[in-house]
Automatic annotation (TrEMBL), chain A:
Its main location: other. GO terms for molecular function: peptide transmembrane transporter activity. Residues 90-442 form the Solute-binding protein family domain. Gene3D superfamilies: Dipeptide-binding Protein, Domain 1, Dipeptide-binding Protein, Domain 3, Periplasmic binding protein-like II. InterPro entries: Peptide/Ni-bd, SBP_5, SBP_5_dom. Residues 26-45 are annotated as: Disordered. It comes from Tessaracoccus oleiagri. This is Peptide/nickel transport system substrate-binding protein.
UniProtKB/TrEMBL annotation, chain B:
Belongs to the binding-protein-dependent transport system permease family. It is found in: Cell membrane. One of its GO terms (biological process) is transmembrane transport. This is Peptide/nickel transport system permease protein.
Length: 521, 307
């Protein structure tokens, strides 16, 4: 069977090559370089790469959804943050040249000189001030961690001074998620021009957006006036393909040169495609189930715990995802600082779950719904596996698979009992995920525990790593007790790419930097 | 005059005994052909119906239950619980045969309900338009024309996206998309019938509109409506599968042939059976209804017999 498949693949590839030669779209596959040896870089006019990301984008205004992974992957090619995080999650200068806490609550940031937007206007402190004000005013996902900023000043063109309501060691890391746009189009009270600019921003990054089609594609062209090392690709296209088969077809016939997150079931198929490499990387992504904690019957911690105990997560993960995903022992991925194993995590015990439900007054179960985005291709099977587990303890869960935009609307509108989705800890620190999502102020899932809030605030302000770890141990223990959510598994990311793609690596945040990627013959 | 008679006699085929026998034989053969073309599809559809009703019960099939250790097993595999999945299992470990029969149940139920609703609406409209004529005919038939001018499947996708997923919604959507054919056929049949003697007689005896429509026109329309219904049945099943395939049909947890085929497309290279076998089952069912509809038309209208 394998040989038939290989032959079919080869036939398809051959047919496509003929097609490509006829239309002269791209001549890259005419001669394959000898194995194990990278050919010379293609001439500049052939440096065109199409990438299929794993995540969809519900829009193009990053300030309205600063944490959407798909939007970050796209817009980070054009807009840049003040700082970037290195592999140890330590902030490194980017648009900010340096920063200093002049008092425990005053952060002074020096803006890099000589940086210009792709239209030629120089980057000044007013741009940073305006952007931060817009982010704060949008009251979106980052609001909980940014709201400690009480004052933003720009005394001169190269200095920004932030004042915070309390000492906050993690603020600089959070700034790596704020992408700086133009100040003239960024105000607390957004105007129509502001929204228009942010929907298709002009930034300081290595690429310029040339086209954007909602739910379909982003097209970029190299920013030839980029302040850093210029991109090697002439054009970059990010094309959304949600169908798992379509992704692989695009890769095997060279429509796309790289696709992100091939599903585990397709590993074997990908490995059978000639001239394609599949590589896995560690990531800060994970999946969780959220409960609407203030909505009966899920307002009872015992009921939530029972829902957790109904799931045989090791079997689900092993069967559906093999080695590409791992069961979690904390509420954020183990790769992030402070995500220590909780000591009292519920485990699979359907009988115990039934007993908990009966004691809570639901001997015959109940009916709730679960929402999820259909943009994440392989989630249907997961939804069914979860629902099957809950059914075994007598709880009926109605699946509501929604397209990306409807899901986001339902999710932020809190129109659900349960939700499952991928999530990230892009700062690589537990504070980011736990404090942002589970504090009373976050008000994301109807969960509020003042004791937990106190511990998280303490951990946020503490600078001694040992003490912080100890505090987070208490935090995750309380959370395992309260069960506001079920962490399902952490994911590895993978990229399958054609062998002539060089320099493509996926950082744990999954925000791929395409400026170093290039194509060879 | 007299010279013209002999040729007239010779050209009339019934006059000679040999040609009369041939015609009889041909007619008998044609009738037998029609009977086979009616019986065989009915048996096939009957098997689907019996399978759809009994198989999920025998297998204890629960669409919400997953058996992850048994996922993606090829046809003929012995599963962890000792049973043999002779058509294999799908991506969440459900027995494909039971799932297909459950899907056939959904398809048949959607097909039947849609025919009832679309048929009732369409036939009523057709009877009214044909019987009363005038402005009522103009208004109703222009509405029908407007809808006919728009591709039915596009209309169905549009409506399904607005109404959302769900079995009831699919039935509503497909009923809206399919009433026109019934209305059109009924109206043309009524137009052909309404000047016939028995209708005239009823009218002369003082029968009211209701009596005329229900007792004289409707019985005369039954045959063509039955034919249309059979053909439409296949179309509706296909349309439901198409909607489910596109993700605007049945929700997760309600297997339909279309949604099973769709789920299997992600595994075409590694587990071909998930898409292929329900596809063959769907084709068989639709083909049977198509042949049946064609044969019924021949049965009711012998002049169209192909013999």
């Amino acid at each position: 069977m394998r040989s038939i498949r290989t032959r079919l693949m080869k036939a398809a590839a051959a047919a496509l090559m003929v097609g490509l030669a006829l239309t002269a779209c791209s001549g890259s596959s005419e001669t394959d370089p000898p194995e194990g040896e990278a050919g010379a870089a293609l001439p500049d006019d052939q440096q065109n790469l199409t990438f299929v990301p794993n995540y969809g984008w519900a829009g193009s205004d990053i300030s309205k959804a600063p944490l959407e992974i798909g939007m970050n992957i796209a817009l980070k090619q054009t807009l840049e943050p003040l700082v970037t995080l290195d592999n140890e999650a330590q902030p490194q200068p980017h648009l900010a040249e340096s920063w200093e806490w002049t008092t425990p609550t005053t952060l002074e940031i020096k803006i890099r000189e000589g940086v210009t937007f792709s239209d030629g206007t120089p980057l000044v402190s007013g741009d940073v001030k305006g952007t931060l004000e817009r982010y704060l005013a949008q009251k979106q996902a980052l609001h909980a961690v940014l709201s400690i900023i009480t004052g933003i000043e720009a005394p001169d063109d190269s200095t920004v001074i932030l004042t915070t309501s309390a000492p906050t060691g993690t603020l600089v890391g959070v700034l790596s998620l704020v992408l700086i746009g133009k100040g003239e189009f960024s105000h607390a009270e957004a105007t129509a021009e502001d929204d228009e600019y942010w929907a298709r921003p002009i930034g300081t990054g290595p690429f310029v957006i040339t086209d954007y089609v909602p739910n379909d594609l982003f097209k970029f062209e190299r920013n030839d006036s980029y302040w850093g090392e210029k991109a090697k690709l002439k054009t970059l296209t990010m094309k959304q393909i949600t169908d798992a088969n379509g992704k692989l077809t695009a890769l095997s016939n060279n429509q796309a040169q790289a696709v992100q997150n091939v599903s585990y079931d397709q590993f074997e198929t990908v490995e059978a495609i000639p001239d394609v490499t599949l590589e896995q990387f560690e990531s800060l992504s994970y999946y969780f189930v959220w409960f609407m904690n203030d909505r009966a019957p899920l307002d009872n911690p015992d009921v939530r715990r029972a829902m957790w105990m109904a799931l045989d997560l090791p079997t689900i993960v092993e069967s559906l995802y093999g080695e590409s995903r791992e069961v979690m022992d904390s509420f954020c991925p183990a790769a992030a600082f402070g995500c220590v194993p909780a000591e009292n995590m519920p485990t699979y015990d359907p009988e115990g779950a039934k007993k908990l439900l009966a004691d809570a007054g639901y001997p015959d179960g109940f009916t709730v719904d679960i929402i999820f985005s259909l943009a994440n291709a392989t989630d249907n099977a997961l939804a069914q596996a979860l629902i099957s587990g809950w059914k075994d303890i007598g709880v009926t869960v109605e699946p509501r698979g929604l397209d990306a935009a409807s899901w986001l609307a339902a999710f932020t509108g809190m129109d659900w009992y349960m939700d499952f989705q991928p999530n990230q800890t892009p700062t690589g620190d537990a504070d980011y995920t736990l404090n942002r999502l589970y504090s009373c102020a976050a008000a994301r899932l109807g969960y509020c525990n003042p004791e937990l809030d106190a511990l998280m605030t303490q951990a946020q302000q503490e600078s001694d790593p040992e003490v912080r770890l100890d505090l987070y141990q208490q935090v995750v223990n309380i959370m395992a007790e309260d069960t506001p959510a079920i962490p399902l598994f952490s994911t590895k990311v993978n990229v399958a790419y054609r062998d002539n793609v060089q320099g493509l690596t996926v950082p744990p945040t999954e925000f791929i930097n395409f400026s170093t990627v290039y194509l060879t013959e | 005059m007299t010279a013209a008679l002999p040729p007239m006699i010779t050209t009339t085929p019934i006059a000679t005994p040999t040609t009369a026998t041939q015609t009889m034989q041909r007619a008998r053969r044609a009738r037998r052909g029609v009977k086979i073309r009616i019986t065989v599809p009915i048996i096939i559809i009957g098997l689907y119906v019996i399978g759809a009703i009994t198989v999920p019960v025998i297998y204890g099939f629960d669409p919400l239950r997953t058996e992850l250790v048994d996922r993606l097993k090829p046809p003929g595999t012995t599963l962890s619980n000792g049973s043999i999945a002779f058509l294999g299992t799908d991506q969440i470990g459900q027995d494909l045969f039971a799932q297909m029969m459950m899907g056939a149940r959904v398809s048949l139920a959607v097909g039947a309900s849609t025919l009832i609703f679309a048929g009732l609406a369409g036939v009523t409209v057709g009877l009214l338009a044909g019987h009363f004529g005038g402005w009522m005919d103009t208004v109703l038939m222009r509405i029908a024309d407007v809808q006919l001018a728009f591709p039915a499947i596009l209309l169905a996708i549009l409506l399904a996206s607005v109404l959302g997923q769900g079995l009831t919604n699919i039935i509503i959507v497909l009923s809206i998309a399919n009433w026109v054919v019934f209305a059109r056929v009924t109206r043309s049949q009524v137009l052909a019938l309404k000047n016939r003697e028995f209708v005239e007689a009823g009218r002369a005896l003082g029968a009211g509109h209701f009596h005329l429509i229900v007792r004289t026109l409707l019985p005369g329309c039954v045959a063509p409506i039955l034919v249309v219904a059979t053909v439409e049945f296949g179309h509706v099943i296909l349309a439901e599968a198409a909607l489910s395939f596109l993700g605007v049909g049945v929700p997760i947890g309600v297997p339909s042939l279309g949604s099973t085929i769709q789920a299997g497309t992600a595994y075409l290279t590694s587990a071909w059976w998930i898409s292929t076998l329900p596809g063959i089952a769907l084709a068989g069912l639709v083909l049977a209804t198509g042949v049946l509809g064609d044969a019924l038309r021949d049965f009711y209208d012998p002049t169209l017999r192909g013999a």
